[in-house]
Amino acid sequence: MKAGNELTYEEALRRLDPEKLSLCYLVYGEETFFIHRILHWFFEKGVDEKLRDFNTIRFEGDKVAPQEVLLMAKTVPMAGPKRLVVVDDAEKIKDPQDCFLS
Hints:
Number of helices: 4
Number of strands: 2
Strand content: 5-15%
Radius of gyration: 14 Å
Distance between the termini: 30 Å
Structural class: alpha+beta
Strand order of the largest sheet: 1-2
Mean pLDDT: 89
Helix content: 25-40%
Order of helices and strands: HHHEHE
């Protein structure tokens, strides 16, 4: 059952448009296969292939400070219009100062 703005895997793929990406997406669910497929779409379509190594960063939630994620998210992309910042297991980030909320 969906609530709010939640989408099924199929709906998400239909709605995603590389030319009209939002600033932030939260991809979650019980099926890790679908999460990985959506993330693969972002890696393939969301960032120019030639610039992917420069404009893509991936963190693990239990090993990163929220300030580091925010710094990377605010950094201007190198020679391209978009930067992709992925945080795996984001629920494990320790954020005692509520950096994300501010």
